[in-house]
Structures are given as structure tokens and as C-alpha cells.
Amino acid sequence: MQEPEEKKIALELLETEQAYVNRLHLLDQIFYTELMKEAKNGKTVPEEVVKMIFSNISSIYQFHSKFFLPELQKRMEDWSCNPRIGDVIQKLAPFLKMYGEYVKNFDKAVELVTVWSEKSPPFQELVADIQKRKVCANLTLQHHMLEPVQRIPRYQLLLKDYVRKLPPESPDRDDAEKALEMIFMVAKHSNAAIAEMERLQNLWVVYQRLGLEDDIVDPSNELIKEGPIQKISTRNNSTSEKYLFLFNNMLLYCVPRVIQVGAEFQVHLRINVDSMKVRELNDAQFPNTFLVSGKQRTLELQARSEEEMNAWIK
């Protein structure tokens, strides 16, 4: 008799989970443990660096080896009288949120491995020594570190496939569909964590360019647009190069600093978005110009093209 399709997928889930737990064991019990031991002896890198590289891998390893894998194994042994995995995955899904931290930290972790391999020959030697072992299968530490990042998308694909292959009357249908939705939410959660981290990093870079002025630095701000602009002086009919940063709550009108030490720009004017008015001007002498007015002042600005002007106005 042929195995039903959904059972094949459930078995694939179990097999990949076993291989994944071995990979986590390698990361946590071998790489992390041995690097930590050497760091404690003061021989390779600071302990903090090792902790940052491996993030919360220990919790992830414990969870999969002590909870998820045994639950799956038990379920597959009982498959003939209880053919279902949806409920087990539902129990598991909320814990997968702990991946958010690992995934968010991943780029930084890989960068630390590279930086400290150059800085500390003993660190590099120890990593190389572990990589030569049979258990590493000729793959680098960075390659193994990528595995947890890819695991949740893998669950998603397998579970999607499983739900698709379930017969309509299957007792597991409701649970499996619910489990798939939960896994989807977890994947979204970890992507949102990455997006939020990138937003804050980019925002911090902008604040540095502005000289980290106290009243401007706010983590909840969102940068919408930035770029050079010409300021029109009606007094002497000339233009001068300025720079704009548009946030969700304010427009910063800046002057590029000549001395390139520290901040790149000096903030000359700040207009609150609440009371700001914007309109296009039809000026034959200066095409693509628009007016931005705040409570204190009105600026006459010229963009480099019509598209650019429209983008700013929008």
C-alpha cells in the first residue's frame, strides 16, 4: 500500500527536524561552548563577543531538542491510530517568536565572526579547528549559523504542502490550517523585527549626519525623504544649494557644512508638519519651484526636475 501524501510530508518534517537539532547541537554545544571556554580563559575574544555571535541559540536548541523533536517523534510513532501533527505545531508556534532575536542579530553576528577572525588569530584557529571536524561536513561556522534563519520559512513550506495534501475529511484539517496561520504570523513577526532594526539603524545614521541635536533625536521618527534642493533668493534673483530632510513630523531645512568633520549638515530651520503648507509656483525664471510655509517662515525652493518637485510636494 502506498503511504498517503500527508504522511510523507509529516515524515519529512520529522527527518528535517532531526537534522536541524543536530545542527543546533553543533552551534550551541560545540562552537558556542568551546569558544566560550577559551574566551573565559582570556585566550581568544571577550566573552561578550561570543555571546553576541550566538545570541539566544541555547534557548532555541533546548526548545527543539527537549520539546519539539520528542513531540514529533511520539506523534509519528502513533500515526496509524492518530494521524495528525497540527495540534503539536500549534503548541510549538508561540515559542518560535524567540527566533525574532536570533534573526535580528544575525547580520551583526556574521560580521563579528569576520572581524574577530582578523583581529584574533587564536579565535580564527579555534573556529578553523572545529570546522575541520567531521560533524561540520566541510561547512563554515557562518553557514551553520544561517540554518536557524531559514528554519521558519521551511516549516511554512512543509506545512503549506501538508495542508494541501490533506483529504477534506481529515481530522487534522482544522488544526493544521490554524497551525499554518500561526507559523505565518511568527515569520511576519521576525521580518518585522528585522525591518524595525534597519529603520532604527538608518535613522541613527541620519541623526549623526545632522550632528545629533538633542531636540531632533527621537527613535519614533520616520524619515520619509531627503535630498538637495535650491533655495531661491528673490532679493538678488539667485539660488543657493541647501538640503532637506522630511520626517513624519517635521521638515529640516539644512545647510551643508564646508568642514567635513563631525556633522554633515547644519539645521537652519525646522518646520512642523502639522502647520506646514506646500504649493507649486509657476515661475518662468525658475522652473520646478514650490513654496513651503511654516509658522515663522516661507521658503521658495527649486527642484532639479518636475518629477523631483512633484515627489517633494507629494
UniProtKB/TrEMBL annotation:
One GO process term, biological-process aspect: cytoskeleton organization
Subcellular location(s) per record: Cytoplasm, Cytoskeleton
Domain DH: 5-193
Keywords: Cytoplasm, Cytoskeleton, Metal-binding, Phosphoprotein, Repeat, Zinc, Zinc-finger
Classification via SMART domains: PH, RhoGEF
Pfam families noted in UniProt: RhoGEF (PF00621), SOS1_NGEF_PH (PF22697)
Domain of life: Eukaryota
Keyword Cytoplasm annotated: yes
GO MF annotations in UniProt: guanyl-nucleotide exchange factor activity; zinc ion binding
Domain PH: 222-314
GO cellular component: cytoplasm; cytoskeleton
Key word Mitochondrion present: no
Name listed for the protein in its UniProt record: FGD2 protein
Species whose genome carries this gene: Probosciger aterrimus (Palm cockatoo)
Lineage: Eukaryota, Metazoa, Chordata, Craniata, Vertebrata
